[in-house]
Amino acid sequence: MDTLLVALKDLIEARKVTPVIGRTYPLRETPQAIDRVGLGHARGKVAITV
Fold first, then answer.
1. Is residue 26 classed as helix, strand or coil in its secondary structure?
2. Which of 13, 14, 18, 46 has CA 20 to 30 A from 4's CA?
3. For the chain, domain boundaries
4. pLDDT per residue as tens digits for the range 23-39
């Protein structure tokens, strides 16, 4: 595993880094998710669920 990925894994496991998911979209709404990100309205990460 890449050294950077190992360091990131260690930080996540130590709860020093917490990913922020602003909103999830179903796969069929991918175009709307892309629009939201493109317009700068997304706060946190946008995730697509399959």
1. strand
2. 46
3. 19-50
4. 999 999 999 999 989 88
